[in-house]
Amino acid sequence: MYARVLTAGLYGLSGEPSWVETDVENGLPGFFMVGLADQAIREAKERIRSAILNVGCKFPDKRITVNLTPANRRKEGSHFDLPIAVGLMLASEAVLCRGDLSSTAFLGELTLDGRVLGCDGVLPMVTGLQRSGVQRVVLPKANAAEAGLVKGMEIMPVGTLSEAAEFIEGGLSMASFIAQGYRPPEETSAALDFADIRGQQAVKRAAQVAAAGGHGLLMIGPPGTGKSMVGKRIPGILPDLTYEEQLEVTQIYSVAGQLDPQHPFLTERPFRAPHHNLSAAALAGGGTNPRPGEISLSHCGVLFLDELPEFAPAALECLRQPLEDGQITIARAGGRVTYPARFMLVAAMNPCRCGYYGDPVKTCTCNESERKKYIGKVSGPLLDRIDMHVAVERVAYREIRGDLHPVKAEKTDSPVSSAMLREGVVRAVEMQKKRYDGLKIRNNAGLTPRQTEQYCPLDAACSRLMEAAFSRYSLSARAYHRILRTARTVADLEGSEAIRKEHVLEALSYRMPERFFE
Predict the structure, then answer these.
(1) b vs e for 220-246, b when ≥16 Cβ sit within 10 Å of the residue's Cβ?
(2) Pick the residue with more confidence: 186 or 384?
(3) pTM (predicted TM-score)
């Protein structure tokens, strides 16, 4: 007997329909699986055998052939367990179908006792199935909330293989629900506030400019000056994710297996701060079955690399292509997978090994060779791809104490809060949305060189200023365009459609602090 059951294959973030064909015929007993299945799928034979027996069905003592289509695409994942088991039960007539299964897909991993476990990547698979015209999905109860994000899809959650069999024999009439899509959360987590940082007004301004335009930001300064505090507070001033961005981020985390089953839809911008001992594969993504790395998990959010020179050079160089293209391609023997990677890189570093080169208070103990070796761990091409470079100076005692000091000689300025900074960021982002309406551009940092010339025009005074800076600082063509984009963002924060000389001067001030690299 022959049976055909619909499921899905996952290729990067793309879910595509896949058919499980099962043939049970007389002959020497055997269980053969073809169709470029990975090790997890090939091992499913023993799980499926035990699951079918333990739910009270007879396992056919015949020749069994299972084919996964399309046969020229590699299949990965334990979610093939349920469709293979269903196909085998239908082909052996252990279950009689009383309805049309042609538009019903099955996803789920099986245990030996017949329970159906949750699996990774359900959201992009269900999204792909709906795009292909599939109307119903039978999947684990653990993934029901995640699949419910795909509006209009009929979801049939099951906890055991027996429930799936009852669903088929009952004429596809068991309890299901129509997905209603995303529902806003009742409350959101509180973000860290810039008001906690005393002083550092220039650095806060740089953080606001970076957040408004999606620019990369590198902070250099002695230990204890607030670099890490600034980096951790940047997500709190970023604009809210759009629905499309929320869906993209949630799909990435679904594939990576990092979704909370109770709250599967991610509504806040990701913030990833990996330790400096992570490998290149952990940063870029990879493995036998390529999964997203920290770069992709930071998509539409912030990737914060503290102590930048302490990261392995191979890991840091993985950042170069994603910073340019907004995506990363992972190539393995089994194929190529591309994940989105439009993230805001925020990095912090000391100017030397001891951390005090150029500090007016504490003397640096590094010699010239040691200092250059330490700084040289971050390559020039990578530095050139980071839009903004800011020196973080030591904070004075009066600024640290602020209003807390029992005796005040003079009134100090109230600290700049995240709400104040975010207000300007949101206004600038709205200007960018209107300017780039209809284009595949989300912020100023995403402009191509040709678009930069179009949307960042300079008057004669600004052109002369840029010409002098280009010669004085030996800027590359890439750095030139990045300065123009930063100036465009500064102008947006001021509500100006024209880029003026003061905007260019501020953008130039956000390039590499020269004294640290002499």
Answers:
(1) bbbeebbbbbbbbbbbbbbbebeeebb
(2) 384
(3) 0.88
